[in-house]
Give the backbone structure.
Amino acid sequence: MSKVNNIAAIATGLSTAGISIIRVSGDTAITEVNQIFKGKDLTEVAANTLTYGHIIDGQQIIDEVLVGVMHNPRSFTGEDVVEINCHGGMLVTERILKLLLRLDIELAEPGEFSKRAFLNGKKSLSDVTQAMELIEAKNETALNLAINTFSNPTNKLVSNLRNQLLDIISVIEVSIDYPEYDDIEEITHSKLLPQIIKFETEIAEIITDSKRGALFKNGIDVAIIGSPNVGKSSLLNYMSRENKAIVTDIAGTTRDVVASEINMQGLTLNLLDTAGIRTTDDVVEQIGVTRSREQIELAALVLFVVDSSRKLTDEELKLYEEIKAKKHIVILNKTDLKPEVDTSLFTQTVNLSALNQQGIELLESSILATLDLDKFDSQNAKYINRIQDVSKLEQVAEVLATVKEGVEMGIPIDTIEIDLKDALFMLGEILGIEAKNDLLNELFSRFCLGK
């Protein structure tokens, strides 16, 4: 018996709703669904149309439905696809799916429809990643980035870079191998250097935007640390606009890490309220202090909270020495009281009263500036979503740094060209294309060598 080619899955969320959609894809998807459909013959209806009818189990009508039929290759997966639009009750949706699975249809694995679209050449890896980013966006900025990649996708950004590099290499090739060619100007180190610098700058911009975009997309772990009873839990509650953490006047109330996810000016922050860090004989509190120090190591940003109404303790000074090499902001809490703390010890401070809920706007602005995200334009960013592609671009940037150094040192152009071809190959890897044939095509089409 041949392996089942048809797959089915519920395409909408399994919940009570107005409509649910069950998608079927495969070589005989239309014929299979037709067996449980009462209405027009689905094998005869026009493609890309909706057909009214009923899903039946033998003689019993299960639901009143609209069925969409799409013929290969003009479908999402590139195969024949049927979409059953049924009523959105959980039981009826599951009942129809079970009917389908009695036929020559298997339950789709997670992501299998997208996988088939990729294997059938309907979607690139970048296309699939972009769709997932749109679905998984946690904040407005992440949504804008996902939308932006549809109009300015990875393939377009990398292709533009690759075409520029291809142009540089082709000019070098002609000037070396065809010195008698009159229409090409001889390439020199002084002429090559500005082109390399421009190319290097563009790649750096894409890498920077991509890394900043990843922070907006994935969110940032922010550790709220400090001595006991300085207002860390109050700050967490203030920033999250809810009472996530217990607040008392008793030092050491917070014994474990309390987390709260918030959206702040388009950025998702995973706030981690940690146990007060101090020397203690309490075994449970000691565990909390250990976990607090672990969160400091893992966090992308540390909010160091101090009580501005009293002088710093030796333990607080020691703690600040431990965290000042990381991205951090010192929060001078309790500014509603008389200030006593020496602020000259700190490089960046924010005055705040968590009790009176004052100063949050300044703190939010300081967080964005500290993370170098305050001027990030999500709608115009040169953003690449796949971390593998960003990593490959970083390799290209390293090669270009070597090339620039070689040009400045006067290393022969033909030697420099070897590194440029390596960079061209890496860009081709991102796009999944072969560099050699493209270089030959560029040489002969542009310069008409040999006529």
Notes: Confidence is low (pLDDT under 50) at residues 244-256, 446-451. Residues 189-218 form the longest helix (30 residues). Residues 54 and 64 are 5 Å apart (CA to CA).
